[in-house]
Amino acid sequence: MDVADVEFWESIYAAGTPPWDQAAPAPPLVRVIEETELPAHARVFVPGCGFGHEALWLAAHDYHVTAVDFAPAAIEGLRYRAQAAGVAIDVIEADVFDLPTELGGGFDALVEHTCFCAIDPHRRHDYARIAAQLLGHAGVLLGLFFEVAGTIEEGPPFPTTRSDIIRHFEPAFEINRIEQPEDSFSRRQGREWLASMRRREI
Ligand SMILES: C[S@@+](CC[C@H](N)C(=O)[O-])C[C@H]1O[C@@H](n2cnc3c(N)ncnc32)[C@H](O)[C@@H]1O
Q1: Candidates 1, 53, 70: which one to mutate for ligand 1, based on the most atoms within 8 Å of Cβ?
Q2: For range 150-178, the mean pLDDT
Q3: What are the φ/ψ torsions at residue 117 (nearest 5 degrees)?
Q4: Could you tell me the residue ranges of all domains in the chain?
Q5: Rounded CA gap, 167 and 35, in Å?
Q6: Any bridge partners for residue 11, and if so which?
Q7: What's the CA-to-centroid distance between 8 and ligand 1, angstroms?
Q8: Is the CB of 128 under 6 A from ligand 1?
């Protein structure tokens, strides 16, 4: 099966709690969101949201959140969690490479968490371009990237290094920081890159 096919991801959800799910927002992302001091009620986009732990955290902190995943099980899981938490999130079942046009741009921030390493590596430039187009003037991408060694054939997750992140995002983003966080979940310690970047003006 192909990672571009929703059935690939749906079959992982069907097998039980997916292996990437940490049941909580990633501490480095929460920290960088707080440090970034987004405007009150900022519009935030979360691609490949899975069960949406960051989306839930953002909504609980009064941001206007749009979360997208193409796997129905992820969408159902996030809708259930949002209802249980009493928070409002625009949860959209869609392919990040084929987003509904009404989504437009104008988001203040995009929060990336292990979506980059999940998509076909040949589509990474497209992914970075789409991320930039979703953002408005001075929009920021706050990302926690899972570092992956190995070959494309072994993925997903697909090989991801610090230089891969810089190479793919730098054309559309000014990278303000990219560092290995010390507050990763214990099983991801030393295997993540926390990045903060601002959309370049076109
Ligand atoms: C590794 S999981 C990460 C989920 C979540 N961000 C997290 O960190 O818990 C990747 C997610 O991206 C979704 N995904 C992969 N390719 C996608 C695409 N082209 N469009 C939308 N969602 C996609 C999968 O269904 C899956 O839920």
Answers
A1: 70
A2: 96
A3: -80, -5
A4: 6-199
A5: 25
A6: none
A7: 11
A8: no
Residue 18 burial (C-beta neighbours within 10 Å; 0-12, 13-18, 19+): middle
**Confidence class for position 164, pLDDT limits 50, 70, 90:** very high
Residue to mutate (ligand 1; options 69, 99, 145; most atoms within 8 A of CB): 69
Q: Are the beta carbons of 115 and 47 closer than 8 angstroms?
A: yes
pLDDT value at residue 104: 80
Distance 106 CA to ligand 1 centre (A): 22
Percent of the chain with pLDDT strictly greater than 70: 100
Span 137-159, average pLDDT: 94
Which option is the CATH number for 6-199: 2.30.30.40, 3.40.50.300, 3.40.50.150, 3.40.50.1010?
3.40.50.150
